[in-house]
Amino acid sequence: MLEAGIDIIEISRLERSIKRHPRLLARVFTPAEVAYCLARHRPGASLAARFAAKEAVMKALGIGLGRCSWQDIEITREQGGRPRVILHNRARQLARELGVGEITVSLSHCHAYAAAVALVESSFSEEG
After folding, report:
1. Is residue 128 assigned to a domain?
2. What is the pTM of this model?
């Protein structure tokens, strides 16, 4: 079975939130995600794309907010630049329980918005 999740976020909204609540970076993103994004030309856009990806993964898994930590879903990059999802702790456990085989994600951003789509392939179906 294939499940999809999508999310879009206004980049400036996330930037304002981080400015008001600096601890948000450490609460939502892994140290590796923060380091990567802060080294980019537009750190806010990179952070927002990863935020959207985490939300899209949660939606595709059907777990919603609060079932795992934001940091349990990490967005990295393969050598060729393709984004990759790594699940940790509770998110990994939930994915196993759901029979998740593979998660793919696509990120995009423009001047004002960042968006992500996640596809989750699982071996379980509601039909049995």
Report:
1. no
2. 0.93
